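Design job #97: recover the sequence.
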């Protein structure tokens, strides 16, 4: 087996190996009370309001991360493919936020005045720092968990019995929707392409940031459940 063949085999399933690495984190995410009670419609409205406000703040920074990552893509085909999948995800989430902000009585002024929680602040700064200062492959691996984990969670909840009158059904429908799934699959594919061209050191860093971002995903939902604010 020559070196190029061996390298291809090692990197062809980068995302599969990365997903396997976060299996313990995913088990904790799937058990989060916020997601359990969102799926059965019993989540207290004040917790969901806190979550959706923080998510709106997060998305503003996440969109900028996506733009930075796209600008670092090595060729026009990947730039266009990445921008297309990113646009799908942002459009879907912005539509979801608009509906929920109205439904739960959150005004534009509330969004403007909202302050990121410690977890939201830390997560978005981690993503922005990685996007600015690391390679395309590493930055792509950092933004991937948001796509993939929301897709996974949405699919899992979507397959549970529908609760009539669930105020959060639109959230379930959004992340279980084929359009969101298509965007997530495209980013997974792009990450595998980037891994094939990455050095061994880069692939280690790709895995590290993928795991860290997945930990932040758990922290984000948990912090909303606890109505996290700055302690001092």
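Job complete. Output follows.
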């Amino acid at each position: 087996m020559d070196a190029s063949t061996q390298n291809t085999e090692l990197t062809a399933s980068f995302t599969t190996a990365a997903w396997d690495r976060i299996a313990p984190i995913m088990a904790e995410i799937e058990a989060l009370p916020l997601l359990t009670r969102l799926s059965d419609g019993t989540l207290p409205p004040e917790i969901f309001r806190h979550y959706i406000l923080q998510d709106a703040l997060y998305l503003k920074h996440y969109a900028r991360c996506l733009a930075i990552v796209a600008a670092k893509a090595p060729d026009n085909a990947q730039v266009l493919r990445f921008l297309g999948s990113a646009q799908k995800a942002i459009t879907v989430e912005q539509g979801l936020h608009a509906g929920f902000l109205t439904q739960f009585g959150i005004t534009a002024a509330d969004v403007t005045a909202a302050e990121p929680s410690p977890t939201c602040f830390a997560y978005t700064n981690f993503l922005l720092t990685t996007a600015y200062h690391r390679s395309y492959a590493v930055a792509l691996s950092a933004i991937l968990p948001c796509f993939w984990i929301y897709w996974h969670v949405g699919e899992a909840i979507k397959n549970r019995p529908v609760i009539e009158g669930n105020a959060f059904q639109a959230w379930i429908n959004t992340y279980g929707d084929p359009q969101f799934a298509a965007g997530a699959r495209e980013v997974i594919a792009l990450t595998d392409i980037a891994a094939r061209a990455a050095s061994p050191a880069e692939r280690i860093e790709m895995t590290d940031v993928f795991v860290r971002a997945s930990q932040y995903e758990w922290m984000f939902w948990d912090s909303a459940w606890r109505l996290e604010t700055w302690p001092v």
